[in-house]
Specification:
- The complex is a heterotrimer.
- Chain A is mainly alpha-helical.
- Helix content of chain A is 77%, strand content 0%.
- Chain B is an alpha+beta fold.
- Helices cover 27% and strands 20% of the residues of chain B.
- Chain B starts with a helix and ends with a strand.
- In chain B, 60% of the residues are buried.
- Chain C has one domain: Orthogonal Bundle (MetI-like fold), CATH 1.10.3720.
- Chain C contains 15 helices and no strands.
- In chain C, α12 runs antiparallel to α14.
- The chains are: A mainly alpha, B alpha+beta, C mainly alpha.
- Chains in contact: A-B, A-C, B-C.
- At the A-C interface, α1, α6, α7, α8 and α10 of A face α6, α7, α12, α14 and α15 of C.
Amino acid sequence: MRYFLNRLGFLIVSIWAALTLNFILPRLMPGNPAEIMLAKFQGRMPPQALHAFELQFGFSNKPMITQYFNYLGSMLTGHWGLSYTYYPTSVQTIISGSLPWTLGLLGIVWVIAVTFGTFTGIFIAWRRGGFLDSVTPIITMFFQSIPQFWLALVLVYSLSFSMNLFPMAHGYGNSVTMGWNFPFVSSVVYHAILPAVVIFLGSVSGWIVGMRNNMMMTLGEDYIVFAEAKGVPTRRLIFNYAARNAMLPQITSIAIALSTIIGGQILIEQVFSYPGIGFQLTSAVSGEDYPLIQGMFLIIAVTTLLINFVVDMIYGRLDPRVRRRGATS
Amino acid sequence: MKKNKVGAFALTAAAALTLAGCSTSTSAASPVSHAKRSVQSSTPLEVVPSPNGNFQDNFNPFSANANYGTQGIIYQPLFYFDNVSGHTFPLLGTTYSWSNGNKTLTVNIRKGVKWSDGKAFTANDVVFTFNMLKHYPAADTNGDWTMLASVKADGLYKVVFQFKSTNVPFATYILGSAIVPQHIWSKMGDPTKVANTNPVGTGPYTLESFSTQDYKYLANNHYWGGIPPVKTVDFPAYSGNDSADMALAKGNIDWSGSFIPNVQSLFVNHDTQHNHYFFPPGNIVMMYTNLKDPLLSQLPVRQAMSLAINRAQLAQEGEYGYTKAADALGLVLPNNAAWIDPTLKSKLNPAYNPAKAIQILEKAGYKKNAQGIFAKNGKALSFTLQVPAGWTDWDTDCQLITNDLQKVGIHVTVNEEQTGAYNNNLSQPKKDYQLALSWTNPGPTPYFLYENLLASKGNYNVEQLNSPAVNAALQSYSKTTNLAQQKQAIYKVENYMATQLPSIPLFYGPIWYEYRTTNYTGFPTQANPWINPAPWTNFAQGIVLMHLHPAK
Amino acid sequence: MIVETQVVSVPTKKKAKRMNNTAAAFLHNPKAMTGLVIFLIFVLVAIFAPLIAPYDPQSTQFAPLQSPSAAHWFGTTNTGQDIFSQFIWGTQTSMIVGVGAAVVSTLVAFLVGVYGGLRGGVADSILNSLSNIFLVMPGLALLILIESYIKNTTPLLNGLIIALTGWAWGARVFRSAAMSIANRDFIVAARLSGAGSLRIMFAEILPNMTSLIASNLIYACLGAIMAEAGLAYLGFENVASNSWGTILFWAQNGGAMMGGAWWWFVPPGVAIAIVGTSLALMNYAIDQITNPRLRVQKRKKARVAGRA
């Protein structure tokens, strides 16, 4: 219980920190949104349009502290304001339209990469010194070291543009209707293959090498040696004795790796014109759409924090030592 | 990055237009009328105005961020004034006339027009739209009510606009405002707060389907202009120039307004018979000089700068040869060719003459200091030049300008600024810049660019010019409907531009426009640029769509 | 993400000898040596960039879009710049950014992590929360957010930002390690003899954490090179700078892929991949060396073979 409260406390504090950071940064910027908007339409808008925009954006002259609490209140109640670049569309609408694409693609590839990486790690750790053990980590490390956006561009150009094997852009074809029908779902899968391959190649190495190393550490433990001496069958030895314990550190990595993968995905989505939040974040930055930037950043941070929280809980369940150490970790 | 922005800005630019010497009688008839056609092809037309990423469900004509086509394909104004051809296209209006010392504007409304839900369109809808803008100033982004005193219907097919004071060219804004149906918008509440996801307009299309990745317009077969020749117009979303360019090269896009490097080899050569492009000049990119700066306020300094810059090189290297050096008068040519002062023909092209630049500075009393920079009274000609970060072609231009000016002894440091900071530095009352690269949007006559750029109260008078002579000339233009008088006024301003260089024109900003004639023909061409051809041009795009025909 | 096993590595008191052993083992490890040699080649290129680069990287004096030739090993850009020269100068930038960011972020991580781990209590709670927050913040998203408030960044500034946002993982590793030795005799002895925290950290603890530090440096370096390339590619960096990411930015801007100008696009990507692999190899080797259990032992191999 103490462990749970501790982690919950951390969750709340870090969300508050993310919120506050999010509040402060845009307010350090010169100009107000109405002026930015007017400047974008310079030449066309009469000066009176500034007034129109100020009215539209509800530009506030209230004291900072009032603004801060109003902001906290509206963030917590889900009122994230209206995007500048897509005014009057609300930030929630934009995010809810694109987040499922990002999370869907990310989640599936992530599960595949973790599963594949973990089993491969177990396998090559068991057969350490073998051909696969010496080759797999190096090859996957090479793929992990390739900038993902670069790999994505090379694949799009070679496989899609030149060889017509895959679609060049988008999350699904323009001729299918969105919904749970076969043409749509298969189109989504077809469009997801290349981005998925890039994300997979970019993240699988960590799981393989991590699991391999954990596994080898565990295989050296006395109880494994003892169990083996006692004649426990190999399969049981690997999975029930060794892998189970070796997987514990993997679980913490899962949450932390998530933030890295989200970062990589921002670039990949842009290459594939994928309808997720990646492109939206970069374009919001170039368009100086602060409400949208704030909302995006917040949703990414909160998602990551929540997943961390869940992972911490699972970890606490699996490893009683952590629960006892509680406050310190 | 810049290319996207030009598209986005220009998206609305088309609304800023003028009455090209409209006399008191009627507007010029559409040079290319809506032909009644019965041939309709079901092949979708793929349109990518600009690779701006995912769409949001917004078809509100009063929102600056409505999806492409909202203004023009769904909603229409009374008239459309084209800034490339200078033509006027009557849409929901048929004719208009001035009276009462050019303070009263009477518009005849087209008969037999229906909203896409079947209800009749009348003068009441027009009056309702304007009164709504009055009631919700936030929606009045054209600022119509800064000039309007009242709007009244005279029967079902006539509307009378009463102006507060005479301002003939301002009618462009008013006549160019999109009209919405009273029976729907009277229940909408604040028009700036709605996304209007089920738009009902008078235009040639209705919204068929929307998703963030793709939306489609379906032909409105009851359109007053006849049956649209294209049944489905499809707008797919692209996230970057790269993916849009590849789709264009592949033949997946029929009509595009996006920048493409090496357009000949990357696009045209994939299908020389069907792939075409044409980049008409859309605006003038200038080096703006802050006239409140003690050095830049001196004419010889500005003259020397203008002489030292090799504009042809900027157009060729910085702008990929997609454009030409600008004229010295602040006109957009050939769009404004009818307005050139005959006596200025010889001064039309700005000279490139570094030697003369040095002479002028020496004559003005400047001497080179130890660093080889001209200086007078201890003040060296050393300036900062602001440019938005990431607008790569302009970055190249700035490097070239810096080199050119360095050669004649003027030192320039380029400051790349975030767009917000850059806009702010230029637009705030106390300007925080010395030199800046930017542009001013034109209209169908030179008046609009001049008014924005040079009038003391101009929207984009960032150089802070305050010239009574220029103000008076612009004022006299705005008071008259007489073309000859208007021309006289414009000539005066042209002379001022040519001799006083309040800002230094560099090259024309091109309008990106690529099209593919495999499925449809009839697009505007270089030989016949009868309308602004970019698919992001509000109102023009709906007119172009009606002029396409299925390829044989 | 090479996982928490690093945390478990147990520093010992016999630092000098151990360091020598580690270094020797490193030099005898083929993976480590391969990685080191590759990395050093890039370092040499970076140092001697002014001598190696044949032309001014920004000069537009050549014919545009030439394919590789004797005069232009990597061809030219669409504005007639020599890509090989750009690449060489870009190597320098990337190496400075990578190594610089690695040093800065490792230093921050070491200070935050070890200080917290040693002191415990409130200071530790605060520092640990701070690093946990930084740890879960999505890296590139945070960088892009910061970029949106800073204008006209140079590669070096980007490197600094990357370092100051990317130290959290290291801090966590250092903290765990510091906690595990905080109560060792030699630390207690140093404390009793009146040594200050900083002194203990640098004189007593640092030598015991060389492998952790090396590992952290390597990962931070790899991360910084990749992040800088990503930012530059997105255009969040002064586009007039010379870096691998900027080359990619211009290549994409100039339609290099579509126009078939592979020579413009391929070198920076491959170079990043090779540098990254060399760093990963060294890190992999360090893991093996410092964790005896990770070493491949013949006994096990025989056993596996016997069963198979």
